[in-house]
Amino acid sequence: MLSFSAQEYPYPSQRSLVYARRGMVATSQPLAAQAGLDILKRGGNAIDAAIATAAALTVVEPTGCGIGGDAFALVWTQGRLHGLDASGQAPRALNIEAVRGAGHSRMPLHGWTPVTVPGCPAGWAELSRRFGRLPFAELLAPAIELARDGFPLSPVIASLWQSGLDKFRAALPEHPELHAWFAEFLIDGRAPRAGELFSNPAQADTLQALAESQCESFYRGALARRIAAHAESGGGYLREDDLAGYQPRWVEPISLNYRGYDVWEIPPSGQGLVALMALNILKGFDFSERDSPDTWHRQLEAMKLAYADGRAYIGQPDCMRVSVADLLSDEYAARRRALIGERALEPQPGKPRAGGTVYLATADGEGNMVSFIQSNYHGFGSGVVVPGTGIALQNRGAEFSLDPQHVNCLQPGKKTFHTIIPGFLSQGGVALGPFGVMGAYMQPQGHVQMVMNLVDFGLNPQAALDAPRWQWLGDKRIGIEHGAPRSLAAVLTRRGHHVEVAHDLSSYGRGQIILRDTASGVLCGGTEPRTDAQIAAW
């Protein structure tokens, strides 16, 4: 059984393990967590709470998500797990020739070119329609109040806001379309400071329009017309028909049984498959100690091999040349595992048989649980804001390849390889709970570490999040957090890894975990010590 004890990891943390019976919301911002808990107390279920929390996060943490981003969810209700893919596709007018014709040799990070159709609002509405209990308008009310009346910035978000400003200032000479961001997300031309009140009345009006129309206005109404008109006037590719034709998709989650526990992820084009491939390699080893050189070396080597395959083979499902089943086969995992020796590898894809994000977790007293993630991709996203709306548009299209032979090559109407992934654990058909670690390419790496911390090393949710993390950075480069035992860096270096000890932990992911005790029904939650996170419990 997974640990619900107060066992701690010997790593400095200000967080305590949290227990509750009737409901729990875990996320990176206290005000957003409280918004979700208030919905639970008003009679909403875990799905309602997730939507309210997600909407509030677009206000209080715009450095990682927004109305103009994408979302994914894993929802446990009525005895089974459901997957929602609320990611958007490339506009129909966007293609490789247009990008190259504009002078780009690769997809840019800022401006109109990387903007894809936002799926986030449609995801909220779809979750509410299928599984919600309270009226949709009630779920967005806390976010509207925060945007209109203002909220005090938390310390980490203030730092990320300044970082976003610095990047956009550097990009502005080449991207004048970023001017609206400067008008709507600054105070007197500067980033808001920690503890300072920031309000966004334009975003409040947009959220109100979404609340009243169940997000129809964003895709087939007044907001859609404003978005498309701004794109057309500014040289963007997004049009009304791109928005009008968008619908989120219910998908079958994919899973791997890891030492008796089922680990669940969203299927491609998400990178959750990378986490499952790494775990499939690792389950062939025995691990007796978390912080030993053998453990970290094998974890890193398995992660490198899984990522090499993920980057080579994962894309929009109908474009993939290799099936999920083949990539997760025991035979293929054994072949990849056999490559792991004593020395660090240069990762290369194998040959299988052909065939700045926010994360939140919610649970209620009835057994419903949600693992939810949404993102504008890099920080605030593309830097493009629709004037007078507070809608910051994502830059997810930056992930597309301009190589026509690549599985993830840019095509009109195509979805790109996606980094944001929610996770979920179950055992024997019984839900244990949601988990996730936000942070671009850190996400599957964080998932692997969370699962192993819980399953292999018996850590409780808070201890699993407190423990120092590793990160593969490309080639033989690896990062380890400064809280890891110093001896690890020396041994890993001797094994051929190029080790970087990190004191800035902002790139090592920010996670949440909620588990339910199958006997008592008690909820047990952990939250990220590397950010301003909180668990709201009832």
Automatic annotation (TrEMBL):
Which UniProt key words apply to this protein?
A: Hydrolase
What SUPFAM superfamilies has UniProt attached to this entry? N-terminal nucleophile aminohydrolases (Ntn hydrolases) (SSF56235)
Q: Does the keyword Glycosyltransferase apply?
A: no
Q: Does the keyword Hydrolase apply?
A: yes
User: GO MF annotations for this entry?
Assistant: hydrolase activity
Signal peptide bounds: none
Specify one Pfam family.
G_glu_transpept
Query: What is the protein's given name?
Result: Gamma-glutamyltranspeptidase / glutathione hydrolase
Q: Which organism is it from?
A: Pseudomonas panipatensis
